[in-house]
Amino acid sequence: MKYLYLFPLFLMTLGQAQEASDFMEEVDAIQKKYDTLWDASKETIVFTGSSSVRIWNDLQERFPDYQIVNTGFGGSQATDLLAYSDALVLRFKPRKVFIYEGDNDLSAKKKPRAIVKTLANIIARIREQNAAAEIVLIAAKPSIVRWQMKRKYKKLNRKLKRWSQKDSLIDFADVWKPMLEGRKINEELFIEDGLHMNGKGYDIWYEVLKPYVK
């Protein structure tokens, strides 16, 4: 009976490992990229998370006075970032980490509480390496294709904000409100897929995140 009880747990763990392995090639490519670009002698700020970070191609140009490492990987969820935290975050010994996860998690029907728990595990790993590392949690953004889930997004963002208010080394960067027009989403901020942002969307993110970088 004991083994019958453990079998579902084994299947769940195996499934998570298989999902994480889907990103192995992309993670390897990110590591090879920064083998030549990253200067270990300089302080580093890591931006990581899902595709909204991954396709922000001019991050370094927007913050030229800082060494920015962009390890975003498309389609990722918080559990994926936890699985690859060594390669995508800890390797660079960052003094500050910007995290954007939760968007795909909510779409995959994960609960806000579970997302926050995984993010807490990620932050704990970062603090094992550097107890003074600063964390910036980027709010789950609104989007055209996921607008019907706005209540869940708002709930997650409220949890992230409350968390930041209890921890002096965690900040919450609210990109949700600036991407709205009144109570509706600003559709001019998105490319054709209705999920990812165009330059106007990233202009808003830059203005929101700039104070947290500096």
From TrEMBL:
Domain SGNH hydrolase-type esterase intervals: 56-204
Pfam families tied to this protein? Lipase_GDSL_2 (PF13472)
Q: Name one GO molecular function term.
A: phosphatidylcholine lysophospholipase activity
Q: Which Gene3D superfamilies match?
A: SGNH hydrolase
Concerning SUPFAM superfamilies, the annotation shows: SGNH hydrolase
Supply the InterPro entries for this chain.
Ester_Hydrolysis_Enzymes, SGNH_hydro, SGNH_hydro_sf
Mind telling me what this protein is named?
Answer: G-D-S-L family lipolytic protein
